[in-house]
Structures are given as C-alpha cells and as structure tokens.
Amino acid sequence: MPVGVWVLGLVSMLMDISSEMVHSLLPLFMVGTLGASALSVGVIEGLAESTALIVKVFSGVLSDYLRNRKGLAVAGYFLSALSKPLFAIASSIGLVLSARLIDRVGKGIRGAPRDALIADITEPHMRGAAFGLRQSLDTVGAFFGPLLAVALMLLWGNNFRAIFWVAVIPGMLAVALLFFGIQEPEQSRSAQRVNPINRVNLKRLSTDYWMVVAIGTVFTLARFSEAFLVLRAQQSGVPTALVPLVMVAMNVIYALSAYPFGRLSDRINHSTLLTLLTLGMLVLIGADILLAMGGHLGLLLIGIVLWGLHLGMTQGLLATMIANTAPADLRGTAYGVFNLLCGLAMLGASVVAGSLWEKMGGSLTFYASASFCAVALIMMLIASRFIVTPALDDGADE
C-alpha cells in the first residue's frame, strides 16, 4: 500500500475526530440549547451535506485542470478546521448554519481531489483496498471523536461550547500532516492541461460510469443525515451525555467493515459488485425497520450497527466503481459529478426526513426511508440489468 494512502487516511482520521466531536453533539445543542426544531435540524444537515457534495464537482474539475490535487485538498481541510470555533461561539441557528456550510464547503473542496489523488498513486489491482483503508482510518476518527466528546461531556458537565473549542486541535493537526506528509505524483502535475468539461471529454465518460452515478444517486435518496440517529437515540431514553456513543457504535462497525469489503471488491467481477451493493441496500432496509420500531435499547443498538455495516459495504465500493469506469485524466471531474448528484439527493432526503419527523414522528420517518430504499433497490436491479455492460471493471484509462 503506498505511503500516501496511509497519510491521506491519517489526515482523514484527524479531521473526523475534530468533526465528529462537534457533529455528534450538534443536534442536541441545536434542539436543547438553541431551541431548534427537528425540521430545522433536517434542513441544516441536508444543506450542509449536500453543499459538501455539490462543491466537489467544481473542485474535481479544477483538480483535473490544474493538475494540483494536493493544493486543493490542503485548502479544503484548512477551511474545515477554521470553521470549528464558530460552533463554540454560536448563539443562534443562523451562525450554526453558517459554520456548517463553511465546514462542508471545505469538505467539498478536498473530497474529489483527495479521492482522485488516491486513484493516481494506487495500482488498479489494489484500488478497492486503498479506498477501503482510507475509509476505515477515516471512520476510526469518526468513533474516537464521539468517544472523546462523551468523556468531556461527563468531565465538564455537558459543556458543549468547551468541547467545540477542543475540536479545533485535531483539525489543525490534519492540515499540517497533509501539507508536510505527502508528495503529489510528478506525472499527475506535469500532464498536459485540458478542459475537462468540454463536449469531447464529457463524451469520454462511458455509459458504465453514468450507470454507477445513477445507482449512487438513487441510493442516496434512500438515506438521510446521521443527525436523525442521534435524535432517535435521545427519544429512546439515552442520557444526553451518552448519546454520542450511538455514533461510536455505528462508526466502529463502519471502520471494521470498510477495508474488508474494499479488499473483496478488488477480487470479484462486475455482477458480484452489483450483488454486494444490493446486499448493502437490504442491510439499510433492515436498519430502518429496527430504528422505526424504537423503544427498546437493544433494537436501537442493532439498527445502529446495521446502519454502520451498510456504509462499510457500499461507500468504498461506489468510489472504486467510479475509479474503474472513468478515464484517469478525468477522475476528479468524474467524482465531482457523482457527488453533485448525490448531494442534491441528500438535501432532498434530509429535508423530507425532518418534515416527517415534525409532523408524524420518528418511527414513520424510518419506515418511509425503508420503503423508499426498497423502491430504489428495485430501480437499481432493473436499470443495471439492461444498461450496465460487463466491462465495468475494465473501464479505467491508464
């Protein structure tokens, strides 16, 4: 495994520690301290997450044109780190929204160049493992962050703002590690500049690629922000200081499963990749049903575990499928377009979830998600049968 993949993974881990210290507490902070409604939480989270995904299209195109993926990645991580103090001083929902958008713009700027950089420095036969490793390290940070938040909540008597200040430290460490710890491949930076979004280049994105984009977008419509998992835990009677443990449990499973499923994706053919994606969607349906039933702490925990498992089964797989179906010099653009459409889907899903939660309760929100996921699964199976070609694994232009 290239050293650069480990560096990018550790950078992701540090930034996720910083971000999850904030995000695991933010829904409780908005509802309990600032008096926000569940619909407001849904709108803010939907806007934030979709902003990150939408910005990726521009950063991906720019990274292909400039041939400088590292510079954009550093800028994105730095912007996210700078957003953390705003949460600590927020006295209104408006400032929280501003901080979330700044944080997610940073995530959007770094996301596509980072993924394209991983593809650039990794041999084709181990890309699934590389994306899985980065995702696993990222998710290690995603469960250490909430753990640290729980410890500090207990130590400091539920002092949200003090914990948000502490979150600045690992964010800045992530920026420093990326700046000093990785060298961009010379061949990537010296390649001839092209306009990645002209008609000729866009036609080089194959039917296989667009089918992967369609599958990922429909799949995202069946999901919403993990903020609603936090609110569901609170509804189930989990003490406020311990609610972040919900995110810990989910991310432990996510971290443990992402790398093995990434390795598996390197060793299986086109039809089996789609089978694995199908299984991931079935796992999400199971998670939604258990979370909808609610009430019992055991059902909540199993639902959270299944949610983390579906992420581990599908997120690295989709990233690998994009890399395998896009030309090497257009990977940034390919990831950007993919994330643009998924971002719009995430926005719609989170707003609908917040509205359902306000009007009909948490149970119906998760039942609705399960129903839509079932529809998305049927659509994916029908579309993949007739459109996706058997050459999915061989589409990369090296």
Helix coverage percent of residues? over 70%
What is the total domain count?
1
Point out poorly predicted stretches. 387-398
> Given the C-alpha coordinates, what overall shape results?
globular
CATH superfamily heading = MFS general substrate transporter like domains
Could you walk me through the main structural features you see in this protein, from its secondary elements to its overall organization?
The protein is mainly alpha-helical. It has a single domain, classed as MFS general substrate transporter like domains (Growth Hormone, Chain: A). The chain is 81% helix and 0% strand. It is built from 17 helices and no strands. The radius of gyration is 20 Å and the shape is globular.
Q: How would the blueprint of this fold be written?
A:
Elements: H1 3-23, H2 26-33, H3 38-66, H4 69-89, H5 93-121, H6 127-155, H7 160-166, H8 168-181, H9 186-190, H10 199-203, H11 207-221, H12 227-235, H13 245-265, H14 270-293, H15 297-325, H16 331-360, H17 362-386
What are its keywords?
mainly alpha; globular; disordered C terminus; 398 residues; 17 helices; Growth Hormone, Chain: A; single chain
